[in-house]
Amino acid sequence: MTTRAGRPRRRNQVLSREQIIDTAVAMLDAGGESALTIRALTERLSTGSGAIYYHVGTRDELLDTATETVIGAALTTRPAGSAAAPADEIRVVALALFDAIAAHPWLATRLTLQIVRNPVGPVTVGIFERIGGQMDALGVPRASWFDAASTLVHYILGAVSQNARIEGDTSGIDPAGDRDAFVDEASAAWQGLDPEAYPFMHAVVGQMREHDDREQFLTGIAVIVDGLARLR
User: Fold this and answer.
1) Are residues 134 and 89 in contact, defined by beta-carbon separation less than 8 angstroms?
2) Exposed site from 8, 132, 140, 156, fewest CB < 10 Å?
3) Which long-range contacts (CB under 8 A, 24 or more apart) does 65-68 make?
């Protein structure tokens, strides 16, 4: 007998929650949120939609779970050695978040949504606990802990989001565009500005052309942490 056309072939092995999440992340990495539908996921896994709903719930719940999984892995990153300074702890987790979003461009949008929609969820709590947990060791007054941690978190999320795939109106923007080509074009445009009207732009155009995104990100972290350590 032949199987009915259009129905995904059933798996012989038991499908796990981890397999579903891993496959969903791979699909998101390959095509963004629009690529992840329950139908496409069932076809990829050769299963039915019931198995997906049973293990991970709706599509929105799956997106949240995928976000929690990737961010959760980044938050487990620790500095080498057992006696890391608080600045090292912050730098390591910040860079882990930076690299996670660079590797998963869909993640920045979902990360922002999680923090806004679910302030007690594992993503929001995990990030604030890892960053905020260093405020005491930095010597930040307790009354300033929230403001200090929020400043760092806002900087981290804002900076890493520059590596995200932009959702919504993307007219004139190529989310898969070549970074070096963009930097060359922008620096050439800056070089063409009137040097008397824009002396700063001319002074830094060479630095802009040669800068490294990760090093620039870490410089920002160092500047903020140094400032927080001076709060009294």
Assistant:
1) yes
2) 8
3) 65/21, 65/24, 66/21, 66/24, 66/25, 66/28, 66/110, 67/107, 67/110, 67/111, 67/114, 67/123, 68/114, 68/121, 68/122, 68/123
Gyration radius of the chain over CA positions: 22
CA distance 189 to 124: 39
d(CA 153, CA 132) in angstroms, rounded, equals 9
pTM of the model: 0.79
In tens, the pLDDT along 168-207 reads 433 344 445 567 787 888 888 888 889 898 898 888 888 8
Do 25 and 69 meet the contact criterion of CB atoms below 8 Å apart? yes
Q: Which residues contact 41 (CB under 8 A, 6 or more apart)?
A: 20, 23, 24, 27, 52, 62
Distances (CA, A) of 209 to 7, 165, 195, 223: 52, 22, 17, 22
What six digits make up the tokens of 29?
């990495």
